[in-house]
Amino acid sequence: MKILVTGGAGYIGSVVVEQLIEAGESVIVFDNLSQGHRAAVHPGAGFVKGDLSDRAEIDRALNEHRPDAVMHFASRTLVGESMERPFLYLGGNTRSGLNLFESMVEHGVKRIILSSTANLFDQPERMPIDESERIIPGSPYGESKFILERMLHWLDRIHAVRFASLRYFNAAGATPTRGEDHDPEIHLIPLVLQVAFGKREKVTIFGEDYPTRDGTCVRDYIHVVDLAQAHILALRALDHGSRLYNLGNGEGFTVKEVIDTAREVTGREIRANVGPRRRSRGACCDQRQDS
Ligand SMILES: NC(=O)c1ccc[n+]([C@@H]2O[C@H](COP(=O)([O-])OP(=O)(O)OC[C@H]3O[C@@H](n4cnc5c(N)ncnc54)[C@H](O)[C@@H]3O)[C@@H](O)[C@H]2O)c1
Q: Which of 31, 63, 168, 245 has the fewest CB atoms within 10 Å distance of its CB?
């Protein structure tokens, strides 16, 4: 199969590209490098520097490469930023998705895997959160992913576009050659490791008065290689129809547990201080995710 991967120079996308190439697939990465890194793209993959906000750029890429399927990672990804600048998400993320989907339909590309998010579930009634849970997005970021899912629902019915939407909790981990490198970095595990490496003075814990076992936020983490495998399996399963999947590990860890584990593993002190709760995190943070 030939697969076009939007956002394939980013954290999760670059690991998925690596795994796709190792599985023998042919891959083209489409990325504007706003967050990603050219060096993170596997040398076996083709690369197009392009921006999804420009319809002509994605048209050109699909016309030239004629992929069998698309994996769509490219996105703004920050819950907090979306609470401050909602139009970047309600407008930007959805317009980019629409450009991609319209171009796919025009070029006869009928298979897509969408990176969605567990931020669709702001007020879950049951744990673990399964696919039957009521969707109440927790931010404009989550809402933008929900809008993309709904677009794909209609493209499935009208144009027979088969899709899988994967709603991930927090991605974590790396392969020996690829991992997480954002600027600015806001995800907990890389921040904690930056303190361990002496690149950052301390890490801030946002609130310790949550109703959790040690008062700090609980989050579910899924290893990025497991995520990559899930994408490959979801792509193969598209022949059986479109599907929605929630992807987590089923077990949450508190912020303090993550910091303590990093201290144990690295043998470093890792300074931490406690700050106020973050606005975008809402009243309760059980199973809440960053992006
Ligand atoms: N990291 C997580 O824990 C997590 C959790 C849930 C969902 N997700 C979703 O997974 C996807 C990948 O996340 P990530 O952490 O790897 O993010 P990332 O920022 O590392 O990667 C996104 C990539 O998309 C590119 N990009 C952004 N806007 C673009 C545009 N308009 N045109 C072309 N390229 C563009 C960036 O340069 C970057 O390489 C995102 O869609 C995100 O919403 C991530």
A: 63
